Every structure is written in structure tokens, then in C-alpha cells.
Amino acid sequence: MKGLKGKVAIVTGAGSGLGRGMAVRLAEEGAHVAVFDINDAGAEATVADLSGGQAWRVDITDYAACEQAIGAVNDQFGSVDILVNNAGWDKAMPFMETSPELWQQIMAINLTGPLNMHHNVVPYMLKQGRGKVINIASDAGRVGSSGEAVYSACKGGMIAFGKTLSRELGRKGININTVCPGPSDTPLFADFAGEGEAGEKLRASLARSIPLKRLGRADDVAGIVAFLASDDADFIIGQTISASGGLTMHG
Ligand SMILES: NC(=O)c1ccc[n+]([C@@H]2O[C@H](COP(=O)([O-])OP(=O)(O)OC[C@H]3O[C@@H](n4cnc5c(N)ncnc54)[C@H](O)[C@@H]3O)[C@@H](O)[C@H]2O)c1
């Protein structure tokens, strides 16, 4: 892919699952990757897999922490060219059993966190006159997902946010696009599915409902993220693309 060599990419939540796959792929394409995560051990394990990169302990729900760490990345590497807002979290349960405290926690990580990151990264990109942002939403944000009402609202919100910001910033050289994974075999999904026979049954029934007949893997999402981060995607803004084995198909 064109233009990734030497670029500086921040990937949030890259200490685990899909984000690790994205960080590894961007590094393979020649980017320097800053891993932002609250999971120190996971972030260090990711960095060990990268040819060039560094881990930063950043809680994306903390605006000041984002501002400070993004400034430090810019000081150290000389620019911030790519932002992948991947960190996410959910605790699945029927909406009527949830509490306002849980809503706040889910919204802080899946909605406010990415806003904190945009607000602090975009000024560097505007100074450079270019930058690529890829937001990781979910098919839950396109079609809903039982037990994930507030999470789905956040992911749907991120899809709308990316389109709106594309209208504001596209002509200033900032490309913002959204990628929606489907059910993917990661620690987050293991929490959602639960353990034992019930978890296995859910996995099997989801796999049956996916046209490609399997759950996603870390490297299933990494390619589209690298493409959208590259110069090959210079004329693409405000799009939402599912990488979910055909679970949802949009024209
Ligand atoms: N796994 C799936 O089935 C699936 C499906 C659709 C969308 N997604 C989305 O893909 C993204 C990655 O999910 P995953 O399955 O790899 O999850 P994961 O749990 O394996 O990894 C998420 C990472 O985010 C980090 N994180 C959580 N809160 C954070 C915070 N406040 N600040 C910084 N880092 C934080 C965690 O420490 C973890 O390393 C998420 O946005 C998720 O919503 C996942």
C-alpha cells in the first residue's frame, strides 16, 4: 500500500485482539506505531511483535492524558499521521437490567474516548495539512445487537460522528472512515459470549449465521485499516465498511 512507510500511527487498545492485529500490520507496512492502552502487559507484548513502536499507558476516557500522550508521540516521532480509534469495551446484558453507572462507563470508553482522541490528534494533522483517522465501530452500530444496547448506540454514534467530521474536515486533508468488525474471536468477544457450553453454543450459532461461516480473527480487520490509512485511500472519506464475513451487507 502506498505511503505508509515512515508514517506515525497511534492505535488505541492495541494491547489485545483486533487492535494488536492492526498495529502489527501497520508496522509491517513501515509505520511507527504508538500503542495506547491501559493493559500494560498486553501493550508491551504488542510492541514486542512490532518492528518499530512504543507503548504508552493512556486511558482514553481521560482527556488530559490523551492530550499529554499525543503531544509526547509528536515530540518523539515528529508527527502524528494516522489515528486508529480501536479501544472499546462492553458488558453484555439486557438493557432493562443495566444501570446508569454502567451506561456512563460504556459511553466513556466507546464514545467520549474516541472524541478525546480526535480533539487532540486533529490539530497536529491540520498543521501538516493531512491525516488519516480510522474509527473501529461495530456491526452492532449498523444493525443492533441484543444485550448491547448502549454499546450499539455508541458505535452508531461513532459512525454518524465520522460522517459529520468528514464534512467539516475532509477538504482540509483529514480522511475519516469507519470500520465495523463483526463477531471476532478476541478477549472482548469471550466476555460477551461467556464460558462453557452456553458460550460454545453462541459461538457456533453466530458462525452459522455468518455467510463465511466463521468468527472474525485479528488479521481480518487489519488489511482494511491499513488500506484506509494509506495514500491509496486519499479520495475516500466518511465511509463505513464492515469486515464481518458478510454478516451485514450494505449497498
Ligand atoms: N471482538 C468482537 O467481536 C468485536 C466486534 C465488533 C467490534 N469490535 C470492536 O473492535 C475493537 C477491538 O475489540 P477487541 O475485540 O479487540 O477487544 P479486546 O478487549 O481484545 O481489546 C480492547 C483493548 O482496548 C483496551 N482498552 C479498554 N478500555 C480502554 C481505555 N479506557 N483506554 C485505553 N485502552 C482501553 C483494552 O485494555 C484492550 O487491550 C473495539 O472497539 C470493539 O468494540 C469487536
Order of helices and strands: EHEHEHEHEHHEHHHE
Q: Looking at CATH, which topology would you report?
A: Rossmann fold
Count of extended strands: 7
CATH domain class: Alpha Beta
Topology:
Elements: E1 8-12, H1 17-28, E2 32-37, H2 40-49, E3 53-57, H3 63-77, E4 82-85, H4 100-128, E5 131-136, H5 140-143, H6 149-169, E6 174-181, H7 187-193, H8 196-209, H9 218-229, E7 240-243
Parallel strand pairs: 1-2, 1-4, 2-3, 4-5, 5-6, 6-7
Helix pairs in contact: 1-9, 3-4, 4-6
Bound molecules: nicotinamide-adenine-dinucleotide.
Characterise this structure.
The chain has 251 residues and is α/β, with parallel strands linked by helices. The chain has one domain (8-184, 218-243): NAD(P)-binding Rossmann-like Domain (Rossmann fold, 3-Layer(aba) Sandwich). It has nine helices and seven strands. It has a seven-stranded parallel beta sheet with strand order 3-2-1-4-5-6-7, with helices on both faces. The longest helix is centred in the middle third of the chain and has 29 residues, at 100-128. The chain starts with 7 loop residues before the first strand and ends in an 8-residue tail after the last strand. Bound molecules: nicotinamide-adenine-dinucleotide (NAD). The site of nicotinamide-adenine-dinucleotide (NAD) has 31 residues, from helix 1, strand 2, helix 4 and helix 7. Residues 12-13, 15-19, 36-39, 42, 58-61, 86-89, 109, 113, 136, 138, 181, 183-184, 186-189 line the site of nicotinamide-adenine-dinucleotide (NAD).
